[in-house]
Design brief:
Elements (H helix, E strand, L loop, with lengths): L1 E4 L4 H4 E6 L12 H7 L19 E5 L4 E5 L3 E6 L7 E4 L9 E6 L4 E6 L6 E7 L2 E7 L5
């Protein structure tokens, strides 16, 4: 994945979140509270809620051997590697608490836009906020 920054503060405004099984540890140097702050699974009262996106909120990237579903919020919620019939690496589309996902997101409240580059399987997800614009480009090179 590539992250492009359009403002000086954008590098501070974009971060990533690994949605993993309960009890899993965060990568070295990543603050757990930051990840929880990005995690939309908790309601304001602290109760867990299921946060499934509608299927039309996903873009698809693939390489003729496998495929991934990329949410409009920048999350990869479904991916089987190295083939379609392999076990899933990320499966939040089936279980948002235990399925796992990978997400690059804005720290600020942002609008999301998703589009494909013309005549390609390159998916662009944009985060638009008052602080700037962030862009994530996802693709799988065809081999």
């Amino acid at each position: 994945m590539t992250v492009r920054h359009s403002t000086e503060c954008a590098s501070e405004a974009l971060t990533y979140s690994l949605g993993a099984a309960p009890g899993a540890r965060s990568p070295e140097g990543i603050d757990d509270t930051l990840i929880m702050g990005l995690d939309q699974r908790r309601a304001s009262g602290g109760d867990e809620i299921m946060g499934y996106k509608p299927i039309e909120s996903y873009g698809v990237i693939g390489d003729l051997h496998t495929v991934a579903l990329v949410g409009i919020d920048g999350s990869i919620d479904w991916c089987c590697l190295p083939r379609f019939d392999s076990p899933s690496v990320f499966a939040a589309i089936l279980d948002d608490r235990k399925g796992g996902s990978f997400r690059i997101a804005s720290l600020y409240e942002a609008q999301h836009k998703q589009m494909y580059m013309p005549d390609s399987n390159v998916l662009v997800t944009r985060f638009l906020s008052d602080q700037g614009v962030g862009e994530v480009v996802d693709f799988m090179p065809v081999q």
